[in-house]
Amino acid sequence: MGKSDKAERAKERREKRLQEISLLRTIPYSDHQRWWSAETVAVVTGGNRGIGFEISRQLAAQGVTVILTSRDHSVGLEAAKVFQEGGLNVFFHQLDVLDTLSINEFCDWLKQNYGGLDILINNAAVNFNQGSDNSVEYASQVITTNYYGIKNMIQAMIPLMKHSAPGGRIVNVSSRLGRINGKRNKLEDANLREKLSNIDTLTEEMIDQTVSTFLQQVQEGTWESGGWPKTFTDYSVSKLAVNTYTRLMARIFSERPEGEKIYINCYCPGWVKTAMTGYAGNISAEDGADTAVWLALLPDQAVTGKFFAERREISF
Ligand SMILES: NC(=O)c1ccc[n+]([C@@H]2O[C@H](COP(=O)([O-])OP(=O)(O)OC[C@H]3O[C@@H](n4cnc5c(N)ncnc54)[C@H](OP(=O)(O)O)[C@@H]3O)[C@@H](O)[C@H]2O)c1
Fold first, then answer.
1. What per-residue string of b and e applies to 277-292 under the rule 16 or more CB within 10 Å gives b?
2. Would you say the CB of residue 41 lies under 6 angstroms from ligand 1?
3. Does residue 235 carry a catalytic annotation?
4. 277 CB less than 6 Å from ligand 1?
5. Does CATH place domain 36-176+241-314 in 3.40.50.1460?
6. Under the GO molecular function aspect, what terms does this record hold (predicted)?
7. pTM above 0.70, yes or no
């Protein structure tokens, strides 16, 4: 089969799956499946536009109370207003995932006004490359926002996660570009791949060390021969860290007692028409948001530490 035939087949498969999913989205959850109510609180980072905006809309449309956060006050307020005018329970609070003061203020506000949260959607991220670019000019900002931003939020939100039988839910918006063992774009160092894949021995220090080695090589100008993913290198390293951290946190959370469980998963939204891709993606933000909402509301709460795309588990 030629390259263009393969691409054509892949496109057909993707379109078929997206059609199936839009159909699935029209099927209402039964009362039995609905573990949530208007008292259920979901926090979405980077909710002012793109996939985060859509995730906020879809979660609120299911009856969850959504706290739409944005680092820019007026833009976030405006976004929440759009939803409120449509009758949805969406409320705004400023949040910059890299600003400790902003995170602390948000935590105080959330605790005081809502008593905590049930669902955290870590959506905020940056990418500075498009098409065939592969600049690492902003590598530090990319790694800091996409990886450390998620870590900041998870660590800040853990004490605020409400205790409940269905468990707290965390969804990390990630990318297939960050697969450790994907066919393309993987780390060349098999030992490092093995180390990051071994969930029993994985530590936070190993992940931090991997991203800091990358950033050090960027600073020294040696990253190109460092065996890092070849496409959107800084972004791919950041998402590889997110995926690995998701698995690590699932292991750590599994030790929490019944009634205090937190389930954490990550997913790839696909190539989505948003500002991040210069609107060049092949799917809408609505479709890109779907798996996040599906995962956050899963009636079967035992799913944790997995990676998904189009409502199906995929490999790390
Ligand atoms: N689009 C795709 O094809 C694609 C593919 C795979 C994965 N993803 C992932 O999907 C998620 C959403 O991306 P998108 O496509 O919707 O991109 P987007 O339109 O660029 O939205 C990114 C959001 O993140 C926010 N953000 C950036 N830095 C932040 C910070 N320090 N604190 C708080 N918010 C911050 C942005 O806020 P501002 O408006 O203030 O900049 C914006 O709301 C990201 O995790 C991305 O990596 C996207």
1. eeeebebbbbbbbbbb
2. no
3. yes
4. yes
5. no
6. oxidoreductase activity, acting on the CH-OH group of donors, NAD or NADP as acceptor
7. yes
